[in-house]
Every structure is written in structure tokens, then in C-alpha cells.
């Protein structure tokens, strides 16, 4: 089975801190994605990557950056955390860019105080 | 930009009853997905609908797609408690274009 692992289930950070969210997939998927999930808003795409060292902005990239140094790992970085970034963050991966279904990690609930 | 609207957002059902969740989308979409999310858990793919008239069924859930009406439905037959979860629909041509609905939180009561 495909496994997408997010390093932390819960995180509490202070305003202004730099925050790293890590995601690892074990199925050699080319595509990896970061979403945030907020009640009533569904999932919104922050960044995605189709290959190592490649990244593209999604719908809400402001305040975030990403890093993909290895195929299996995709990191989301909050350069200076703010309270409006309190949310559930979901990592996902897929086999190709042809609209295949996504495999999701279990999520990281981030609270910024 | 594709916009996806689900309704209802909250649904409370009695066990044994039938109901339908609706997913409308604003522009042409190559495909439509349904995902399930249990509380505190990851999203899990249920169905991928690839063409007009597509119908897929698994257990008590059946999904259909009408691309002309820009509508997908998820029909629940004889609901059981185990179906309690949040259901998301999503549409798009590629993963980077995929847009999710807000989700329908389903509660099945005895």
C-alpha cells in the first residue's frame, strides 16, 4: 500500500517562528502536493511539485515555501508563522500528472499562537 | 477556474435510509473524484469518474457523473453507522488543477 507520512500530527508554534512540515512517500511518485484544510472551505492547494527541485505555486502560496531535494520528500516551510496559518495541513502524492487519484497523509494540525 | 460546490454541507441520517449528496462544478472538468475522510484521518479515494454517464458502485455507495449538467452525485443506500464521515468531491484535468468542494459531513444515527 502507498504510504504518505507526515512527520507531526500536532504542532504548536509561536507567531514569527519558522516552521517546517515534512512529508515522505514510499511509492516513487513523481507528484507531491501540499494542501491546507479549513472548515467550510474544503482543501486548497498551496504548492505542488512534479519532480525533484521543481515547485509550482498553487492557489494560496503566500507566506509559504517548499523544498523538494529528494523524490520521496516534500517539505512545506512557513517562513514566519502567523495566526492565520493555523490550519490542518495535508500532504498528498500521485503517480503522474494525468489526473490520477491522490494519496493523502494523515495531516498535521498546526496551531500558531 | 473550476469551482466545486457540494450540498448539503451537513447531513444527519437515520440508519436504513437513503440519501444523495450533490456536487456541482462550474466549468468543464475532465474527471470527478470522491474522497472520504474519517475524523482525525487521511482522505481516502472512493471513486474516480472519467466520462459522462459514468456510474460506479461500492457497497452502499454509488457515484455518477453528468458532464452536461456539470453534476455528480453520491447516493447512499440503506445507510449504516460505518458510513459516518466527511465526503469530498473534487474535479479537474490534472492534479494541480484539482479543486475540492467544502465537504459533506455525514452522521448516521441508529
What this model shows, in words?
The complex is a heterodimer of chains A (113) and B (110). Helices cover 0% and strands 53% of the residues of chain A. By secondary structure, chain A is mainly β. In chain A, strands 2, 4, 5, 6, 9, 10 and 11 form a 7-stranded mixed sheet that branches. A 4-stranded antiparallel sheet of chain A has the order 1-3-8-7, with no helix packed on it. Chain A is globular. Chain A has one domain (4-95): Immunoglobulin-like (Sandwich), CATH 2.60.40. Chain B has 110 residues and is an all-beta fold. Chain B has a single domain, classed as Immunoglobulins (Immunoglobulin-like), CATH 2.60.40. In chain B, 0% of the residues lie in helices and 56% in strands. In chain B, strands 2, 4, 5, 9, 10 and 11 form a 6-stranded mixed sheet that branches. Chain A binds chain B through residues 4, 31, 33, 35, 40-45, 48, 56, 58, 90, 92, 94, 97-107, and chain B through 4, 9, 30-31, 33, 35, 40-45, 48, 88, 90, 92-96, 98-103.
In a nutshell, what does this entry contain?
Chain A is mainly beta and 113 residues long. Chain A contains no helices and eleven strands.
Number of discrete domains of chain A: 1
Tell me, briefly, the overall form of chain A.
Answer: globular
Number of H/I helices of chain A: 0
CATH topology of chain B: Immunoglobulin-like
Q: Roughly how many Å is the radius of gyration of chain B?
A: 13 Å
Radius of gyration of chain A, CA atoms, in whole angstroms? 13 Å
| Percent of sequence in beta strands of chain A | over 45%
Q: Which structural class matches the secondary elements of chain A?
A: mainly beta
In CATH, what is the homologous superfamily of chain B?
A: Immunoglobulins
Largest interface, C-beta within 8 A: A-B, 27 and 26 residues
**Got a strand count of chain B?**
11
- Can you give the mean pLDDT of chain B? 91
- Poorly predicted regions of chain A are none
Main sheet makeup of chain A? 7 strands, mixed
Name of the top-level CATH class of chain A: Mainly Beta
Amino acid at each position: 500500500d502507498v504510504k504518505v507520512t507526515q512527520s507531526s500530527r500536532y504542532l504548536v508554534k509561536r507567531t514569527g517562528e519558522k516552521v517546517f512540515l515534512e512529508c515522505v512517500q514510499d511509492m516513487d511518485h513523481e507528484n507531491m502536493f501540499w494542501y491546507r484544510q479549513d472548515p467550510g472551505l474544503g482543501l486548497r492547494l498551496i504548492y505542488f511539485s512534479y519532480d525533484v527541485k521543481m515547485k509550482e505555486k498553487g492557489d494560496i502560496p503566500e507566506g509559504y515555501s517548499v523544498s523538494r531535494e529528494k523524490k520521496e520528500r516534500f517539505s512545506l516551510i512557513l517562513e514566519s508563522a502567523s495566526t492565520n496559518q493555523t490550519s490542518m495541513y495535508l500532504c498528498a502524492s500521485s503517480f503522474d500528472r494525468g489526473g490520477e487519484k491522490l494519496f493523502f497523509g494523515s495531516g498535521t494540525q498546526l496551531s500558531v499562537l | 477556474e473550476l469551482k466545486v460546490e457540494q450540498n448539503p454541507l451537513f447531513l444527519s441520517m437515520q440508519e436504513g435510509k437513503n440519501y444523495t449528496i450533490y456536487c456541482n462544478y462550474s466549468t468543464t472538468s475532465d474527471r470527478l473524484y470522491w474522497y472520504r475522510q474519517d475524523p482525525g484521518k487521511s482522505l481516502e479515494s472512493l471513486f474516480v469518474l472519467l466520462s459522462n454517464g459514468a456510474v460506479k458502485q461500492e457497497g452502499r455507495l454509488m457515484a455518477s457523473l453528468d458532464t452536461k449538467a456539470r453534476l455528480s452525485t453520491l447516493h447512499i443506500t440503506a445507510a449504516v453507522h460505518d458510513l459516518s464521515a466527511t465526503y469530498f468531491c473534487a474535479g479537474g484535468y490534472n492534479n494541480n488543477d484539482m479543486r475540492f468542494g467544502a465537504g459533506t459531513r455525514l452522521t448516521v444515527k441508529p
